[in-house]
Write a structure and sequence with these properties.
Strand order of the largest sheet: 1-2-4-3-5-16-6-15
Structural class: alpha/beta
Radius of gyration: 24 Å
Shape: elongated
Largest sheet: 8 strands, mixed
Number of strands: 16
CATH topology of the largest domain: Aminopeptidase
CATH class of the largest domain: Alpha Beta
Bound molecules: zinc ion
Number of domains: 2
């Protein structure tokens, strides 16, 4: 049996793990109930595991027994993120979470698929010419859990060179169930946060000339930021800057002392990210100065660009086609504007981040409630495919020598 058939044979097991995880969504870096399920399964499979200190993340290593053709033993990494979101589930599913939190981004499917892949690999150690690091990660949703795991040594967990890394992400809309999608180069944007406080001079609303109006200055800044995006950046290396929060003043007759706003900033190259940081600083300081105000500005880099390796993208395309047929995978022409901390892994080792469609078959992928929605439903038929692909990518990469 190949991994496709073997994965189908354990479909009930993977679905049941997914539903158990779905009922105990936990947020951020603290996932005790989730870990119980993951550790119980890993122990049942006889895979040694190590719990991380700074997050409820787990690293487990499968030791292949095949003779490495390359001569030297190598390792690959497979990631499954495990955290949920502060969303009250409204799917009406029989196994819907009742806790006020929800696996609205499908990370319960990621965890279940990685456990499924682990089962396939641990039962096929002879054909595994190296080691597989299983990265069960907490805190993907804004907590930078991947960085914490890197700091605690996940990349060196096998003790042999790490040569490839792969992660899947399911989507409850956009792609039909079971459809993989991948792209070479940047596949997801960098995500930064701009926080601005304009310090003016308060007074009576009827005599603004005696003060310095921070609201009108902040408004000018917001418009100028949009102009900067369209005038200073190459449209073929796009950036997105969206002001998502604005506050200032409390009464119609009172000119406030200050005004604040925040923006999310997305980019697809290190050069643009750098230019955004410098450009925001220069533009906002200049506008404040021009009006006799001052500005406090914080530009935080949250997640870097997620960049897929060209060769590894080719491997993913060829492997999916071989396993599931020509139409099972789509090569994306555009990147996605969401962001991912798997970017931190791909910054260290060549690999690929792969989208996996999970739109319920009764819904149109263009209209189905998307990830993070309280109504997002993920089709479970994609689970066995995902587990089989992860296992095969690991096996395939380890059968090759070091990349030249
Ligand atoms: Zn996610």
């Amino acid at each position: 049996m190949n991994y496709v058939e073997k994965s189908d044979a354990i479909a009930d097991e993977i679905v049941s793990l997914r539903r158990r995880l779905h009922q105990v969504p936990e947020i951020g870096l603290v996932l005790p109930e989730t870990l119980k399920i993951v550790e119980e399964k890993l122990q049942a499979l006889g895979i040694p595991l190590e719990r991380h200190k700074n997050s409820d993340s787990v690293t487990a290593v499968i030791r292949g027994t095949g003779t490495p053709e390359a001569g030297q033993k190598q390792s690959v990494l497979l990631r499954g993120d495990m955290d949920g979101l502060p969303v009250t589930e409204a799917t009406g599913l029989p196994f819907a979470a009742q806790t006020g939190s929800m696996h609205a981004c499908g990370h319960d499917l990621h965890t279940a698929m990685l456990l499924g892949a682990a089962e396939l690999l641990v039962n096929d150690l002879e054909s595994l010419q190296g080691d597989v690091i299983l990265m069960f990660q907490a805190g993907e949703e804004g907590f930078d859990g991947a960085k914490l795991m890197i700091e605690e040594g996940v990349l060196n967990a096998a003790g042999v060179p790490l040569v490839g890394a792969y992660a899947l992400h399911v989507f409850s809309g956009g792609f039909p169930a079971g459809q993989f999608a991948v792209k070479s180069g940047p596949i997801m944007s960098a995500s930064d946060r701009l926080t601005v406080t304009v310090n003016g001079k308060g007074g009576h609303g009827s005599t603004p000339h005696h003060g310095v109006d921070p609201i009108v200055i902040a408004a000018e800044m917001i418009v100028a930021l949009q102009t900067m995006v369209t005038r200073r950046f190459d449209i073929f290396d796009p950036v997105v800057l969206t002001v998502t929060q604005f506050a200032g003043g409390q009464a119609s007759s009172v000119l406030p002392e200050n005004a604040t706003f925040q923006a999310t900033v997305r980019s697809f190259s290190e050069a643009s990210q750098q230019q955004l940081e410098v450009g925001c600083q220069r533009l906002l300081t200049g506008i404040a100065e021009a009006h006799g105000a001052t500005v406090d500005l914080e530009y935080e880099r949250l997640y870097p660009v997620t960049v897929n390796d060209e060769r590894e993208t080719e491997r993913v395309l060829a492997t999916a086609r071989h396993m599931f047929g020509e139409d099972s995978i789509e090569e994306l022409s555009n990147s996605l504007t969401a962001s991912e901390d798997f970017s931190r892994i791909l910054a260290e080792v060549p690999g690929a981040f792969i989208a996996l469609g999970a739109t319920p078959r009764s819904l149109d992928p263009r209209e189905a409630p998307f990830n993070h929605s309280a109504e997002a439903v993920f089709d479970e038929s994609c689970l066995t495919r995902g587990a089989a692909l992860l296992a095969e990518l690991a096996r395939d990469r380890l059968s090759e020598g070091p990349q030249q």
